[in-house]
Amino acid sequence: MIGKWLTQIFGSQNERELKKLQPIVEAINALEPDMQSLSDDGLKGQTAKLKQRLAGGETLDDILPEAFATVREASVRALGMRHYDVQLIGGMVLHGGKIAEMKTGEGKTLVATLPAYLNALTERGVHVITVNDYLARRDTEWMGKLYTFLGLTVGTIQHGLDDRQRKESYGADITYGTNNEFGFDYLRDNMKFDSQSLVQRDLHFAIVDEVDSILVDEARTPLIISGPAEKSTQLYYQVNGIIPKLKAEADYKIDEKARSATLTEEGVAHAETLLSVENLYDPGNIELLHHTNQALKAHTLFKRDVDYIVKDGEVIIVDEFTGRLMPGRRYSEGLHQALEAKESVKIENENQTLATITFQNYFRMYDKLSGMTGTADTEAAEFKKIYNLSVMVIPTNKPMVRKDFPDVIYKTRREKFNAAIEEITELHKKGQPVLVGTVSIDISEQLAKQLKKHGVPHEVLNAKNHEKEAEIISMAGQKGAVTISTNMAGRGTDIVLGEGVTELGGLHILGTERHESRRIDNQLRGRSGRQGDPGSSRFYLALEDDLLRIFGGERITGIMERLGMEEGEPIEHNLISRAIENAQSKVEGHNFDIRKHLLEYDDVMNQQREVIYKQRRDLLTGVDLKSTIEDIMMESAEQIATQFADERDLPEDWDWPAISDAVFQQFSFRMESLDEDTLDGLNADGLAEEIFDQAQKLYEEKVALLGEADFRQLERVVMLQTVDNLWKDHLLSMDHLKEGIGLRGYAQQNPLLVYKKEGFDMFQETIDRIKSETLNILFRIQLAEPDHIEDLQKPKEQKLIFSGGGDAPAAKKPVKRESEKVGRNDPCPCGSGKKYKKCCGR
């Protein structure tokens, strides 16, 4: 109560922050006549003038009013669009490294041009992140006219570009692209063997469009580059055959809330009989048990045309938030293979992680991060906690007049859909356009069949025909249009009302189910009522809906029974609406915990990744390794001395044959015997010096033999390859550690703390092995010709698998994209020149 009272007197924090920006808006507006008076060349000349001011010591904040005024006038001339005052405010919020929440249709794409231009003047590059390739292309072409008018360069990062094209796009002043492409390029750069082939510059400033989708929804799945491992696929088919023979409840139990399926004791015994094994839990059957559990999950928890579709003989994941297909992404730990066996399509090999990062840790590497969306306020706490991003709600240019009707709740799904179809039919007859939101492809297609029976013409927008997305959405506001859409709802594309539609009430949004997240529901509503247009929205619900059934619990059912319900009779009640919001809040909290949990574990990996990637970058960019190698040599000599030089014994009594063996094992030479004078009073430090001196002498001879420059290049190549091989092994070990870490909870241990400690110990071992193996190779390697160093430096060509998840065993074959399968008679991807079947395909 006191909080509300203070807000009434002083205004909310959001209002106070907006007031602070008003004088800057007035300063920009005051400059407009001056900008209008400039010729085109004069306006273009502003870019050089503003850069000069920056070079003279002024800050970006100092030049902001003039830069924004320049962009506004250039936009009028190049695009025929003038920034509203609220768009100037949005631009300032983005420049300040915050999230601007702006309603749909308020022109977020145009808003981004203001901070993008201003920050591009530093010549360090600006990245504008979009949710799909179509928007990245569209915005590059559309807003690119404005940037080029002002003398800036603009690039796009798209799927299928080669390294040269990527480097060129990243070298532009402003670069558009999707979060996946930017993230994967970062990982790929840290797998390169040559500094010239690095494509990304340092991460300076990012503007994330649809920031909630990218930094929240997609942040539950890390980016992973992986390679296939050789493993028999017969096991998947064998296990798949037994699952239909198991009975629900008797043989297995399902927990929909936790998305898990587990065998009962009877189920284990039944499975053992079907698989002809004595004990499924025998250590020798661990792999079989794992496959059985994954097959059970595939059959009971994953539904075709909801969680995935089958297209051209491939199982393709459907994004649960957007309804989009995610080709190339695969479920981890053999689950995807279990789904392939279930659907009787070709089973692809499991993958081993080669490089991975979460979106949280990728985007936190930018010097400055900002974002914009129509719906961020519900996740404001998460943005602040994870990314240190504040959310500011920007007022609309014109008042919002959309009517949001209360939810209508029915007892069964059948009644709900009958009522929804009745309303769609009535509105279609009236001529009012309707956008129908569904939570899955399956429901969108069922609804389409029902509308066809009722003779209602309509368009369906889901992952199966997303290629027509822009075309379908652009017509959704026309008179009499009925558009059925999954959650993507043409996000990023405005629905413009056709002639006469305003008088009919504008676009009506009809939701057929509440989503787990309130934000997704708000996004659907936000398709209507843009820029002061009329519009309306209503959600149709049923007690049988997943959200109400799983998370609503007995509370909602009890309320419904007390209120009394008859066949086909809907109920609208504030108690129900509140209970539904509580259910959504529970799910949102659960999903936040998942993302937080993923980040906590990736933070451990992130510290290790930063060490390895810095080491790789130093190696690529020509840091002199001579002193580094000498330090490693000294360290190894000290380890040998510490192990064998017991200072309680006389030096002549030390185990010299064992010392000699240890030196030979590490440095590949036998120690010269030490004279009596040297032995007299020798301690561990002295022995280490002796080993180091002899090793250094031999090493210098090797350097002289090959030549200083060539040998330094050899050091670089050897160390890079050693780092990569052992880092890959370490990632696999960390995957295995994470898989089993949950069991530590049964021993009253905190799994995360155990993961941190054991992960740190494993990383230290990996660093020690990198040093030891690098020395081993350098002391043993023999090159007949200096030219061979170049051959060593050329890594085998790899076509990598890019996914949003995957823990799998070691890769032994060249890695290829799932969409680029290599035939037996095709040239081998490793670059050997042989046919695949006679090289890596054997």
TrEMBL record:
Coiled coil (residue ranges): none
SUPFAM superfamilies: Helical scaffold and wing domains of SecA (SSF81886), P-loop containing nucleoside triphosphate hydrolases (SSF52540), Pre-protein crosslinking domain of SecA (SSF81767)
Main location: membrane
Top-level lineage group: Bacteria
GO biological process: intracellular protein transmembrane transport; protein import; protein targeting; protein transport by the Sec complex
Pfam families the UniProt entry points to: P-loop_SecA, SEC-C, SecA_DEAD, SecA_PP_bind, SecA_SW
Domain Helicase C-terminal: 404-588
EC number: 7.4.2.8
Compartmental location: Cell membrane; Cytoplasm
UniProt keyword annotations, A-Z: ATP-binding, Cell inner membrane, Cell membrane, Cytoplasm, Membrane, Metal-binding, Nucleotide-binding, Protein transport, Translocase, Translocation, Transport, Zinc
Subunit and partners: Monomer and homodimer. Part of the essential Sec protein translocation apparatus which comprises SecA, SecYEG and auxiliary proteins SecDF. Other proteins may also be involved.
Task performed by this protein: Part of the Sec protein translocase complex. Interacts with the SecYEG preprotein conducting channel. Has a central role in coupling the hydrolysis of ATP to the transfer of proteins into and across the cell membrane, serving as an ATP-driven molecular motor driving the stepwise translocation of polypeptide chains across the membrane.
Name the record gives this protein: Protein translocase subunit SecA
Organism, as annotated: Desulfosarcina ovata subsp. ovata
Name of the encoding gene: secA
